[in-house]
Amino acid sequence: MEQPPVIRLIDSDVRPLAETMARAFLQGPNFVYTQPDEARRRQTLPAMFSCFIRIGQQVGTVYTTDERNGAAIWAAPGRHAGFIDSWRAGFLALPLRLRFSAVVRLGQLGTHLSSKRRALMPEPHWYLMALAVDPYQQGKGLGSHLIRPVLTQADRAGQACYLETFVRQNLHFYEKHGFQTLGKCTLPNGGPTYWTMKRLST
């Protein structure tokens, strides 16, 4: 099936894409853990993904389509979001939108994942922060289309890639693209289970 052209998101109008990502991740275990109330989660996820997209633009790259029906957000090798990046992305304003419990859990989740990634991937690597496809477009190959540009770039440069997924069914998808499972982990204090995956250049 022919796919729409994949483009780098370079403009500042991130809201349409954030809304697509919010629909895709509405039932994601990590976001359900952060905000168990679905109505509240539906209301606040677009703002959260607006921040994620802006972070991706600052420390890596964001691939999408003209229709904004999916996105792959990558952090480039050696790039990490610092305080200034977070401030520019709008993360410091998120506590005004989220409940205190959601802010605490979001912080714990981010800290845990960052620590695990540093331990498993000490070498420079591309980090797939998020891959999302609009629920109405899933199963048509768009996800593969969105991650292909960076995978190709990583292969040319001899660079590794890394990701986490909170959905077991995603493992086969990523394995088809050369990722191998490093391990299965569970967030402490009743958090969700996730899998870490690594891809070496081919």
Walk me through the structure.
With 202 residues, this protein is α+β, with helices and mostly antiparallel strands. The chain is 44% helix and 22% strand. It has a seven-stranded mixed β-sheet with strand order 1-2-3-4-5-7-6, sandwiched between helices. α3 crosses α4 (83-89). It is globular, with a radius of gyration of 16 Å. The two termini are 25 Å apart. The model has no long low-confidence stretch (mean pLDDT 88).
Give helix % range. Answer: 40-55%
β-strand percent reads 15-25%
Protein structure class: alpha+beta
Give Rg in angstroms. Answer: 16 Å
Query: What oligomeric state is this?
Result: single chain
Summed up, the helix count is 7
For the report, how would you describe the main beta sheet?
7 strands, mixed
SSE topology string: EHHHEEHHEHEHEE
Spatial arrangement of strands, main beta sheet: 1-2-3-4-5-7-6
Distance between the termini: 25 Å
Give average pLDDT, whole number.
88
Low-confidence stretches: none
- What coarse outline follows from CA principal-axis ratios? globular
Tell me the number of strands: 7
Keywords summarizing the entry:
202 residues; alpha+beta; 7-stranded mixed sheet; globular
Write the layout of secondary structure elements.
Layout: E1 6-8, H1 15-24, H2 29-34, H3 38-59, E2 60-65, E3 70-75, H4 83-89, H5 100-120, E4 125-133, H6 142-157, E5 160-165, H7 170-176, E6 180-186, E7 193-199
Parallel strand pairs: 4-5
Antiparallel strand pairs: 1-2, 2-3, 3-4, 5-7, 6-7
